[in-house]
Amino acid sequence: MKKIIVTGGAGFIGSNLLNYLVPLHTDILFINLDKLTYAANLHSLADIEGAPNYIFEQGDIADQSAVTGLFRKYEPDGVIHLAAESHVDRSIVDPDSFMRTNIMGTFYLLETCRQQWKRDGNHMFHHVSTDEVYGSLGETGLFTEDTRYDPSSPYSAAKASSDHIVRAYHRTYGLPVRVTNCSNNYGPRQFPEKLIPLMILNALEGNPLPVYGKGNNVRDWLYVQDHCEAIWLVFQKGKTGETYNIGGSCEKRNIDVVRLICRALSEETGRPPDDFEKLITYVADRPGHDLRYAIDSSKLKAELGWQPNETFESGLRKTVRWYMDNDEWIEKVRTGEYRKWIAKNYGDR
């Protein structure tokens, strides 16, 4: 049986990826390696936890001995590397954990693969990264796979570093790798420090909807299921050593996203839109806030035939309904470390 380690599989993208792959590929053993930090939630994997082709292993990718032991135990054929500290705001106030996990954790994974995999062409290390490594765009243009790196935050700098290390291991040691850089994901199971779930839950509870600056920062939005399908397509059929950008071709200003959330909540609850829009509160912009991201996915579409299935409107409606229908999941993540983080960073906004 083929064996694939998915790092960070209890996080947002990882849990959606495993919920998609485990039932679909019963001939593959998926090993979920996750540290279970504040943003991880095993409840997101409840539907597959008893599947015979799924195993959970708690561990830290920045613990080299733990990573080595896991590889010796399972002898994986591939790695889909999603584990990362990913929230920009947190990277500004606590950069240390971002450097440790995103840089050193990636290095330990790569070094273990280099030592344990033979050069037989039957292995693959797929590194999942972000468009934030490219920095900020002006009002025009798109990020391509050849765009110069120009990270603005400790988070994006750490991810940029990990991207470079992955490519270096391919060029220096011949390690089989593929890299994907995606735009902003949204959808079910996203931890509510991120914009869309934070706004949905705050609005439903009558709390302020904090928007940085004037809300004019633009992001390219990608529904998480579309991203998961692209990851698996690249893992299976992408060219070794290549990078593929994954975007939703869906640019929205942050303030427009918030207003669309208010409109969707109005339609779902039957309440007037103003019940939610009156909660919008403009707050001081964060340091180094990039103006605009937009991804050119033409390489992925041309070479592998990928297309996103969701529009922003259809994906947002599915997302709003999911958060309204999953009180138990929400309660499980809105305790402990999450509450401490929100109180510290958003309590006075």
Major β-sheet profile: 7 strands, parallel
The CATH superfamily of the domain at 2-183 and 224-247 and 292-309 turns out to be: NAD(P)-binding Rossmann-like Domain
Structural class by secondary-structure content: alpha/beta
- C-alpha geometry: globular
CATH class identity of the domain at 2-183 and 224-247 and 292-309: Alpha Beta
Assigned CATH architecture of the domain at 2-183 and 224-247 and 292-309: 3-Layer(aba) Sandwich
Poorly predicted runs are: none
Give the H and E element order: EHEEHEHHEHEEHEEHEEHHEHHHH
Radius of gyration, taken over Cα atoms and rounded to an integer in Å: 20 Å
pLDDT averaged over residues:
93
Tally of individual helices: 13
Using the coordinates shown, work out and report the CATH topology of the domain at 2-183 and 224-247 and 292-309: Rossmann fold
Alpha-carbon distance between the termini?
52 Å
* Sequence of strands across the biggest β-sheet: 3-2-1-4-5-6-10
Beta-strand percent range: 15-25%
Can you describe what's shown?
- There is one protein chain.
- The chain is α/β, with parallel strands linked by helices.
- The protein has a domain at 2-183 and 224-247 and 292-309: Rossmann fold, CATH 3.40.50.720.
- It is 44% helix and 17% strand.
- The protein is built from 13 helices and twelve strands.
- Strands 3-2-1-4-5-6-10 form a seven-stranded parallel β-sheet, with helices on both faces. A three-stranded mixed β-sheet has the order 7-9-11. It has a two-stranded parallel ribbon with strand order 8-12.
- Strand 1, helix 1 and strand 2 (28-34) form a beta-alpha-beta unit.
- It is globular, with a radius of gyration of 20 Å.
- The relative contact order is 0.14.
- The model has no long low-confidence stretch (mean pLDDT 93).
